[in-house]
Specification:
This protein has four domains: 92 residues, Rossmann fold (3-Layer(aba) Sandwich); 125 residues, Hect, E3 ligase catalytic domain fold (Alpha-Beta Complex), CATH 3.90.1750.20; 156 residues, no CATH class; 76 residues, no CATH class. The chain has 507 residues and is of the alpha+beta class. The longest helix has 34 residues. Strand 7 and strand 8 form a beta hairpin. The chain has 15 helices and 19 strands. Helix 8 crosses helix 10.
Length: 507
């Protein structure tokens, strides 16, 4: 039979699974309802749809508008009762075939993924490995990009929101991180600067790949399969989940026009809930900041909490100032000398400088007062940043005595990753334990080789008047109120005994 062709509808390259996304298929339905043709011809039934329900809906629509159907690879008259029954069976087999193909494909993709062969573009921080000059499917770390991934997680650990991190990274790395894309019109490869948004930061911070776990089928409705030991980690699992805790805390925050020292840190002594922030202003203009439990109605004034927490936080503040900021200024030559050799003495030098300054100022301040002075002389922004980064939670209790309120600190927890960082500094011999001596002064103890001891003492002598006492050589017990450091020197020679050096600062 000869037919007059009205139009050819072709959805090239599109799946027959869903008809809603097929433009030409839907154009055909529109023309059908306008009765522009009386017969639809398809090569195979699955070219119309691989979904049984969709196909039968289409077939009923054809009958409604007096249109017939011809499938070229099936010689059946679908207008008869037998033909209508047969077409239902055939369409069901088409859907079954598609489902079997999908299952076989998924099994293959899953097997490849479990062996570490991942499709698609790797996330920031990774790239495809090169095999004989060709890109493979396994991921390896892109060292340059990995640094920015670490920075993003570090910013999250410090309490920054998605939007805060996006703004910081966008400003810092404008035009530095780009990707290439082919222009479909010109065919040329274009370099496009990466745009950092809260959505892109969210994607990075919630991607388990960064600590070595690939979540297969994460975007599908099926069960997520976690694939381990196939991706090199950029961060630790502890850092990832600590960031998740921060993200949850940030969800409970809303925009504030002022900062609170202990926001999301104070724990209600009655119910264990994190206390909310509030503020009041008196007629005199005096402003008071409060932390209040919404359930128990227990409230704490910030200045009272700060007063109680100083004794526990000030030593950590000293560490923060020494580690995270430029509290102790050094010239470039000294900074380079401190980093020479196997041990980086930068933090040690900063902490020793703080201890020496306490000794040199002991006539004006007691040791405790000096520490208080460090706390109160530090600006609010720095203290807020320090508490946000270092402190996890603070458990408090309110006491009332004859109308006077005081706050007791029951427990103070450091952020897990910061506690681990401090432990690493001790283990790598970059930070020393402080010990209390007479008259409340402090001194630290370190183990050095002869060369390390000599180099470090020479650096100290450039800034301070240092007296060095060799305890074994002097052959006597020695103690000075100006003692700030004891160095145990390993001679590295079996015939010689170790040396103990006492370091005191002279006025």
């Amino acid at each position: 039979m000869r037919y007059k062709v009205f139009k050819i509808y072709c959805d090239a390259g599109l799946s027959g699974k869903e008809t809603t996304k097929r433009e030409e298929y839907n154009n055909m339905l529109k023309d059908l309802k306008k009765r522009k043709f009386t017969k639809v011809i398809a090569i195979k039934i699955d070219r119309i749809s691989r979904n049984t329900v969709d196909f039968l809906t289409f077939f009923n629509t054809l009958q409604e508008y007096d249109c017939t159907l011809k499938i070229l690879d099936i010689d059946v008259d679908f207008s008869t009762p037998i033909g209508k029954l047969l077409i239902t069976v055939i369409s069901a087999f088409a859907e079954l075939e598609r489902n079997m193909i999908v299952d076989r494909t998924l099994v293959g993709v899953e097997a490849a993924a479990k062996s570490g062969n991942f499709g698609g573009r790797p996330p920031l921080g990774y790239m495809k490995e090169l095999v004989n000059g060709e890109k493979g499917k396994k991921w390896v770390i892109n060292e340059e990009e990995a640094e920015i991934v670490k920075e993003i997680f570090d910013l999250c650990l410090k309490g920054n929101s998605y939007n805060d991190i996006a703004n910081i990274i966008q400003e810092k790395y404008t035009d530095k991180y780009c990707y290439t894309k082919k222009n479909n019109e010109t065919g040329e490869i274009e370099t496009i600067p990466r745009t950092w948004t809260d959505a892109s930061i969210c994607t990075i911070l919630n991607n388990k790949s960064y600590y070595g776990i690939r979540e297969h089928r994460k975007k599908s409705k099926g069960k997520i399969i976690e694939i381990k030991d196939k991706i090199p980690a950029i961060i630790t699992e502890d850092i990832f989940y600590e960031c998740q805790d921060n993200i949850e805390k940030n969800k409970r925050n809303y925009y504030r026009n002022k900062k609170y020292l202990f926001m999301q840190k104070l724990v209600c002594p009655k119910c264990g809930r994190i206390m909310a922030c509030n503020g009041t202003k008196k007629k005199t203009g005096q402003e008071y900041l409060y932390y209040k439990c919404k359930d128990c109605k227990e409230a704490f004034r910030e200045d009272l909490v700060e007063k109680a927490v100083i004794s526990k936080l000030r030593s950590f503040l000293e560490l923060y100032l020494a580690i995270e900021s430029n509290y102790i200024a050094v010239d470039s030559d000294t900074a380079e000398e401190l980093k020479k050799g196997k041990i980086d003495n930068t933090i040690r030098y900063a902490m020793d400088t703080i201890t020496i300054n306490k000794i040199l100022n002991k006539d004006a301040y007691t040791n405790v007062d000096y520490l208080d002075q460090i706390w109160y002389s530090t600006d609010y922004e720095t203290k807020h940043k320090f508490i946000r980064e270092y402190i996890d939670t603070i458990e408090v209790k309110l006491h009332r005595n004859k109308g006077k309120k005081t706050v007791e600190i029951l427990n103070l927890k450091l952020r897990p990753h910061k506690a681990k960082n401090l432990q690493n500094l001790f283990e790598s011999n970059e930070l020393d334990f402080l010990y209390g001596g007479y008259h409340n002064n402090e001194y630290s103890i370190v183990e050095f080789t002869e060369k390390q001891a000599e180099d470090y003492i020479n650096i100290l002598k450039k800034k301070f008047n240092i007296n060095v006492i060799d305890v074994f050589k002097e052959n006597k017990y020695y103690y000075s109120e100006n003692l700030f450091k004891i160095i145990n020197v390993d001679s590295n020679r079996a015939v010689e005994r170790d040396t103990i050096l006492y370091l005191e600062v002279l006025q």
